[in-house]
Design brief:
Keywords: NAD, Oxidoreductase. GO terms for molecular function: alcohol dehydrogenase (NAD+) activity; metal ion binding. Belongs to the iron-containing alcohol dehydrogenase family. The structure is a single chain. It is built from 14 helices and nine strands. It is of the alpha/beta class. The strands form two sheets. Strands 1-9-6-4-2-3 form a six-stranded parallel β-sheet, with helices on both faces. The longest helix has 23 residues, at about 210-235.
Length: about 400
């Protein structure tokens, strides 16, 4: 029997209107009075940062804001943030934004306390001691980073992504309020929602899965899949927004206690080289990896198809998996997510580098089916030419 350890040090306060309680929530949990807010220019324009500052100042907190986070967060920006947080003597870090903001905040917390470069802490359990407490207010329903122990950062010199995985960077509090996503543009709702769905699928199918992560992943799918198209089509659909937000958090809990796999390996490879938005990149490769993995893990992929309601118990596992591949492809089309070949920056001469980068990703070993650099290369070519092997290849 597989050994299972479940450690979620994050308090979750989820519901409509929870953001408006940010000041009182932090007053209960933060020791000290200096809050370092990590965000990005886009979130500042929404007014959320100003609102948070007012709430915190009303509780007697002193605030400094760092707004230099960019998509696919950079090591150089995290280092600047760490220096500013150290100069401020921050007692806690409040991440207000999407996945890039949250991942940056985790790296900034490390660098404030320990210095060095973000790369010094890459891999599993390489953060030697506690870091500045992190509180997270997600503004997208996608990464689940509010409940994970991971931070994915771009090495700007090497143009690759690396991951810091350590329970010591898990947030102490997540304030999960779907109201903050009501104004999210359709394309961001689509890409972040697909990211959450990929988290759930890979957590459920990867080699590091366990009964607890399986339960969380399947429940996440039930919240995400039926509501993703609805949220994209109507950003003010409160039920859809709520379910996506809850589903994203559940998926974050799932993959944080299992892993992601080869979809993320490929997505992070093109994100590092081309700066492709992470959710978009995941969407591009999901159906190809689902098909690749279903050839040896047919039952689990059939369970996914039945869980999200696109197959029934009367369908064979092969037919269910076939429907899953087709639906993941159609879902990306319906959500207007671009194909891999439509990205103007993509160059076929880069495929060997991308395959190597994918293979060296720490989550390659977690993929449901063993995968080589040559397999990755073939998958990049298939995605570029929009070709599938077909379910006749399944065992």
């Amino acid at each position: 029997m597989k050994y299972v350890e479940f450690n979620l040090p994050t308090i979750i306060r989820a519901g409509i209107g929870e953001f408006k309680k940010t000041g009182s929530h932090l007053k209960e949990i933060v020791e000290g009075n200096r809050i370092f807010i990590v965000t990005d220019p886009g979130i500042e324009q929404t007014g959320f940062v100003k609102e948070a500052v007012t709430m915190l100042e009303n509780q007697g907190f002193e605030i400094r804001t760092f707004n230099k986070v960019r998509p696919n967060p950079r090591d150089i920006d995290c280092k600047v943030g760490g220096e500013e947080a150290r100069d401020f003597s921050a007692d806690a870090i409040l991440a207000l934004g999407g996945g890039s903001v949250i991942d940056s905040a985790k790296a900034i917390a490390i660098l404030q306390c320990l210095g060095g470069e973000p790369q010094d802490y890459a891999g599993r359990d390489n953060v030697p001691k506690k870091v500045t407490p992190i509180i997270v207010v997600p503004t997208t329903a996608g990464t689940g980073a509010e409940v994970t122990r991971s931070s994915v950062i771009t090495d700007t010199a090497k143009k690759i992504k690396f991951t810091i995985k350590d329970v010591k960077i898990a947030p102490i509090l997540a304030i999960v309020d779907p109201e903050l996503t009501y104004g999210l543009p359709a394309h961001l709702t689509a890409s972040t929602g697909m990211d959450a769905l990929v988290h759930a699928i890979e957590a459920f199918t990867c080699k590091r899965c366990n009964p607890i992560s399986d339960g969380l992943a399947l429940q996440a799918m039930k919240h995400i899949y039926p509501y993703l198209r609805k949220a994209v089509n109507d950003g003010n659909d409160q039920k859809a927004r709520y379910n996506l937000m809850v589903g994203s958090t559940l998926a974050g809990m799932a993959f944080s206690h299992a892993d992601v796999a080869s979809v993320h390996c490929m997505a992070e490879a093109i994100g590092g080289l081309y700066d492709t938005p992470h959710g978009v990149a995941n969407s591009m490769f999901l159906p190809y990896i689902v098909e690749y993995n279903a050839q040896t893990e047919l039952e689990k992929h059939a369970i996914i198809a039945r869980t999200i309601g696109i197959a029934s118990n009367a369908d064979s596992d092969r037919d269910a998996a076939k429907r899953l591949v087709a639906e993941m492809k159609q879902l990306a089309i319906d959500l207007s997510i671009p194909s891999f070949s439509s990205l103007p920056e993509v160059n076929e001469n880069d495929f060997d580098y991308l395959a190597e980068s994918s293979y060296l990703n720490g989550s390659t070993s977690s993929n449901a089916r063993n995968i080589t650099k040559e397999d990755y290369l073939e998958l990049f070519k298939m995605a570029y030419s929009n070709e599938f092997k077909g379910v006749s290849q399944y065992n």
